Amino acid sequence: MSSPTHVLIHRYTPGTGPQEGTAELDAEMRIWAQIDKELREAGQLVEGWALNEATAALGVTEAHTGSQVVFAVHAIAVGSDAEARQLAARMPHLAYGSTTVHPRMD
């Protein structure tokens, strides 16, 4: 397995985007699964994690109203910053959230 070159950190604002139990969320989850499959097959997915609800984050006591919270992380192995940004631009939640690209320090 390759070492990660970049980390993609995915955020959203609670209460936005597809809601649990809807066809819209099911459709988005299929897109996430397809992206993961493609990255895995290309040898670019080192690890991917979905995180528990924001309220379960250790040390967090205040409400997150109006602010984005991290819900998932991908560690990827790609050849350039531009390639990492291209992958980030494919994420299905960008209409209501964000993905930041962080190059890994050596």
Automatic annotation (TrEMBL):
Residues 1-21 are annotated as: Disordered. InterPro entries: Dimeric_a/b-barrel. It comes from the Bacteria. This is YCII-related domain-containing protein. It comes from Nesterenkonia sedimenti. The lineage of its organism: Bacteria, Bacillati, Actinomycetota, Actinomycetes, Micrococcales.
